Amino acid sequence: MTLIFGHRGSAGNYPENTMCSFIAASTAGADGIELDVQMTKDGELVVIHDETVDRTTNGTGYVKDLTYEEISQLDASFKFTQFKDSASVPMLNEVLEWAKQQDQLLINIELKNGIIDYPGIEEKTIELVRNNHLVKQVIISSFNHYSLVKCKEISPEIETAVLYMEGLFKPWAYAANIGAKGLHPYYHAVKKEIILQSQNYGVAVRPFTVNEPALMEKLIKENCTAFFTDFPELAVKVKTENTPL
Ligand code: G3P
Ligand code: CA
User: Fold this and answer.
1) Is the pLDDT of residue 245 over 80?
2) Three-state SS for 52?
3) Is 133 among the residues known to form the active site?
4) Is 49 among the catalytic positions?
5) Residue 31: CB within 6 Å of ligand 1?
6) Which ligand 1 atom sits nearest the alpha carbon of residue 36?
């Protein structure tokens, strides 16, 4: 059965990558959440998509140039005025501490180290996952595949997944080559044959970001492993309508 991951929580209706967004995804019945991790000047892991705080908060500057104390003061409500001053940039540990209290909620941690190299991001992430006893519920993904190999070396027990945008040739073989058990393609890069072949090789396929009901329905009917959506509540409804009683 196709699983539903709330992309940046429930980013279609809540400020992305904030606690209220993650809580909304879980409340909507999502099987998992997806979040993005960057590192502050003082080495703290924070949950924010961009390399700068400019788009999603009322601050400016690169995450790498700001301390956690400075980032924690920012309003992360973005364009959702109803959440003004009530949404902040969470630390990764804060999200994990909450997530472990949810019933078997899956957590996809995307390491945002494709543009800026954050030394130690892999070790720090894995330490938090282990400390929170979430090894079986976490999938680490990245567009930086060197980082995925490093994660696998540090923690063979945590699943890794390959993020990619376009026509990767035999992606299931590529995944196997770097020890990844999952493929996270841009949805345009997914075809039924890729889903089938990958699953035959024991590799999960979870496309992003699927917001159209027709595509959700298609992926559910093709028995795709999972997909990421900004609208988990809608996706749960579509899944229910397409699940035989
Ligand atoms: O992990 C899927 C998706 O989140 C990757 O792209 O830019 O939304 O982080 P992006
Ligand atoms: Ca992401």
Assistant:
1) no
2) strand
3) no
4) yes
5) no
6) 9
Two structure tokens written together for 206? 């979870």
Specify the CATH number for 3-38+93-241; select among 3.20.20.190, 3.90.180.10, 1.20.120.290, 3.40.50.300: 3.20.20.190
User: Which of 209, 177, 199 minimizes the C-alpha distance to 110?
Assistant: 209
Q: Which atom of ligand 1 is nearest to the CA of 208?
A: 2
pLDDT in tens, 78-125: 888 888 878 999 999 999 999 999 989 999 999 999 999 999 999 999
Q: What is the C-alpha separation between 122 and 219, in angstroms, rounded?
A: 31
Task: Please give the single-letter amino acid code of residue 158.
Answer: I
Measured between alpha carbons, how far is residue 104 from residues 25, 52, 66 in Å? 14, 32, 34
* Burial class of residue 133 in the structure, from the number of CB atoms within 10 Å of its CB (0-12 exposed, 13-18 middle, 19+ buried): exposed
* pTM above threshold 0.90: yes
C-beta 159 within 6 A of ligand 1: no
The per-residue pLDDT for range 7-25, each reduced to its tens digit, is 999 999 999 999 999 999 9
Q: Which residues contact 63 (CB under 8 A, 6 or more apart)?
A: 38, 39, 40, 46, 48, 50, 51, 52, 53, 71
* 141 ligand 1 Cβ < 6 A: yes
* Tokens of residue 231, six digits: 């609208």
